[in-house]
Amino acid sequence: MIYFDNSATTRVFDEAATIAVSYMKEGYFNPSAAYSPAVSVEREVNLARGRISSYFRADPSELIFTSGGTESNNIALSGTLAQRRDKCRIITTAVEHPSVYEPVNALKSSGYDVVIVGVDEFGRVDAKALEAALTENTGFVSIMHVNNEVGAINDISALYSIVKSRAPSAVFHSDGVQAFLKMPAVRCDMYSFSGHKLHAPKGVGGLFVKRSVKFAGGQMGGGQENNLRSGTTNVPAIMALDTAAGIYMKHLSEYMAAMRDVKLRLYENLSRINDVVLNGPSPEESACYILNMSFLGVRGEVLLNSLSEKGLLVSTGSACAARHRGKNRILTAMGIKDARQEGAIRFSFSPDNTVAEADTAAQMIEDSLSILRRFRRR
Question: What is the mean pLDDT of residues 144-158?
């Protein structure tokens, strides 16, 4: 099997899985308890918090552990608005993940002034459109760091400066689920990430919240996470996240180079096939672990199923939208439509992938296309 759908989820590192099991079987104590073994576990969680927060060059108290990217994105919005008394302007982009796009749009019916900023043909945020949308009443801006479908990279630090120059009181949030650890840290007020995108278990992630931000937090209850996100601390997942992050950072240059080699090799191979078109920035200018290509003359889901039978696993876009038929919102925002949108396939890579797999995958794709395109023409 060749797994080229790492933007959906990744294989858990062996070391991370081992750590998680050890905290399920030996260090299973609730860190909120008062006895010595629980206090030791709490200390270990806080050490992990410090190591992970160092990515943001932040104080450990500015990192809230959550269940993952969706929760982080949701509470970034709701926790910010809960501290305001007005129906402020909220700005996001047309290509955000559903966990940002849907809750922002839902606020229209509550009287909030919601503005959706467009992107260029490569999926990058239109900085001029963002600047034009900013007002003194802007309260929340959310722009993703790396697009999960085409790999477009936004210059978050530059966009942050634009926002602060026009709307200094606005809270600037970035969905960093596809960028955390893989991209250099950026300037922002809030930053979301998820463990299962970088070889940690599913069900754990975090939200960086700058200390100066007025933030009401998320779910209420026992007061965990500095009373900003209640719920029994998920120690096994947090410690596995810490382990996976440590491995990733230790081998970062090696991992990024390996994924870049696989992506460039696959792109080179696929570019030789007739009627294949790149979606998004050039491979050199986009995230080195995401490649989106359109195969004209076939439907993406049909090609996906054909490749799956051959042992090549890919996707037609975001895993969260895989079961929802209809137009691809991200590609539509980029001006990609009709046959090109219909035939789009996303490939996403991890350090586990190899150049040899890129060669094998390209041959599988070419074989499938020769059959499917012939069948389509009949």
Answer: 98
Range of the domain at 285: 2-9+252-377
CA–CA separation, 295 and 304 (whole Å)? 11
How many whole angstroms separate alpha carbon 310 and alpha carbon 360?
11
In the residue annotation, 320 being an active-site residue is answered as yes
User: Which domain CATH number covers 335?
Assistant: 3.90.1150.10
Among residues 373, 336, 331, 361, the alpha carbon closest in space to that of 3 is found at 361
Do 292 and 168 share a structural domain? no
**Which of 190, 216, 250 represents a domain boundary (last residue)?**
250
Band of residue 319 on the pLDDT scale cut at 50, 70, 90: low
Same domain, 263 and 282: yes
DSSP per-residue letters across 288-316 = TTEEEEEETTS-HHHHHHHHHHHTEE-BS
Could you tell me how far CA 35 lies from the centroid of its own chain? Answer: 38
Chain CA centroid to CA 160, Å: 19
Question: pLDDT per residue over 231-264, tens digit each?
Answer: 999 999 999 999 999 999 999 999 999 999 999 9
pTM higher than 0.85: yes
Catalytic entry in 88, 188, 288, 320: 320
Domain end residue (candidates: 196, 217, 250): 250
